[in-house]
Description:
By secondary structure, this protein is α+β, with helices and mostly antiparallel strands. 33% of the residues lie in helices and 39% in strands.
Amino acid sequence: MMRKWLVSVMMIGLLATTACSEQQPAAAPEKEVKQVVVAAVKKEQAVTVTELSGTLEPLEEAVVSFEVGGRLVEMARNEGDKVKAGEVLARVNAQDYSLQVASSNAAVQQSAATLSKVNNGAREQEVTQARLLVEKATVALQKMQDDFKRIEQLYQQKAISQSEFETAQNGLTIAQKDLQNAQQAYSLVTQGARSEDKELSRATYNQAVIAKEAAASTLAKTQLRSPINGTIIAKLTSAGNLVGSGTPVYKVGNIDTLKVVLPVPDREIATWKEGEVVSLDLYDQKRDGKVTKIFPATNQSTGTIGVEVQIANPAHDWFAGQVVKATKTIKGQVGIYVPVESVISRGKDDAHVFVDAAGKALKTKVEIGQIASDKLEIKSGLKEGDQLIVKGVDRLFDGDPIEATGGKQP
């Protein structure tokens, strides 16, 4: 009985082993087909859109102040008023300066009279009077000489005293000097002033004239005039205040045209040219500006070069101090440019893309160059016509089966 049971068990095991040996081996699981977007590689021109910002300024601006001190008696203009170059904006009390002008005028008249007298010489009456004095002194000397001869004889005869003789002698000496003085006075009258006196008189006159002009110039400075055509941007003080030389009174600017200095990276400065047009945006208002100046040096702290752009502002609806954004499109070289998201990069020398190769993702090493807008330059590894996977690359492995969703982009 036991033997029959063992035979039955062995037969069942044998049948089971035979049945297992006849089954097919298990098939490997199929890879998931991944959905991607594919685009044909083609050459195109790189386009970079540069956006820069800057603060609007008046085309011209001047802070106007008096050159002389005084109390402000008039301020004729207010913010927003248009003014012309040379127009009077304010005045200080000019009384003291007017007195200086009057005093200098009197000095000029006095020195002019002295100069005229020196140059013209004595009048005829003065010449006649001087000649008569000479004749009178000559007669007096002749008489004194005759008297002295008579007194001298008497003195020798001891008819008069020593004192009387000396008195006569002194009288003769005085008469001689009186004649000399009269002759010199007559000579001055007839010959005129010396050249040195004439030069001194002329120098005194010239100095008086210069002082008069300086006083008149100072008086004129009591009126504050606009140095430029423009608009009053700011009124910096009030009438009645005491101001000194150099105290700011008004700020005047030309806002018919505004300007902005844009900080252009020095690597891009070669693409900017004087005379070109740049688009400017202020709170969604767009205007064209013109490049008028490219500064000659780089700002060492920012690495940028200033580019001045001027904007017409006839309605004065853009204001100095507002910040505008400038947009400039820069065209680069022709080459292969692909979307940034299609490139997997661990550095410039370790980058790859995936190409659609007969329905499979083919990992392809590439060399990348510059970024142009939202695209990367591919310097090598791709050629025109390659079917580049541009979306879905982040979950791909080399050899994965793929399917282009929605067809292939051109």
